[in-house]
Amino acid sequence: MRTLVHIAADALPDHDGEGLDMLAASLADLIRDGHELAVTYAGPAEAAAPAGSRLVRALSDALPGRHVTALVTHTEVRAHDPALRPPADPADSGPRTALHPYAVLEASAVRDLLADGTVPVCAGGGGVPVIREPGTGRLRAVAGAADPARTAALLAAYLDADALLFLTSATHLFAPRSHGRPRPLLRVTPEELSAVRLPEGVSALADIAADYVTRTGGIAGVGPADNALGIVRETTGTLIHPAPVARPA
């Protein structure tokens, strides 16, 4: 099974230690289970290189004899992306809207690395955002950051990944209730997920995962960073799967 794992910012340790070792062990479990694995991760773009280095070192320790490599990737965005417009108020220094990714330029290299048995760690922080200049087609880096989760889904689709996993600090997606604790979602279709009013902080991630399943026919999961294999095996996390095809009566 070809699997792309995206590590959300809240699940990515910012230094070496037990948390990083636990994350690496979680990813290594997928490989030992027969998964062909590519890894992307979120976080500030300026911290992408150190985070990628930490992941590569931890994964190499967890997978002796397996090649693990960090790859700097460039994510093409459109010059007319609204997130590239200057703020209406020059004094507005708040967070900018993420750029919408259209292509990961090193996607074919990632595919080649997978075919060679290498574990690529790439698209850190959504990749370096670039646009193509009109007329010349030359690449130019732009300010801002591409949406890391959308970039992961875009790359997974190019790689024909069977599964797209989003590792977070939470065990599941949770549906709120009017009374009592939120209800954990276990196994849902994109249609069932769209009917659930999720908290604002995770609704965008759920939409990206559901859209991936609808477009590709693969599966997507959202679950704990310390048990990636458990998401696939449905012992933890939320698994999103295609709706069954209706058979004619």
TrEMBL record:
Regions crossing the membrane: none
Domain Aspartate/glutamate/uridylate kinase residues, every copy: 19-195
Gene3D superfamilies: Acetylglutamate kinase-like
InterPro entries in the record: AceGlu_kinase-like_sf, Asp/Glu/Uridylate_kinase, Carb_kinase
Pfam entry (one): AA_kinase
Record flagged with keyword NAD: no
Record bears the keyword Cell cycle: no
Organism superkingdom: Bacteria
Keywords: Kinase, Transferase
Coiled-coil annotated residue ranges, if any: none
Entry protein name: Aspartate/glutamate/uridylate kinase domain-containing protein
UniProt source species: Actinacidiphila acididurans
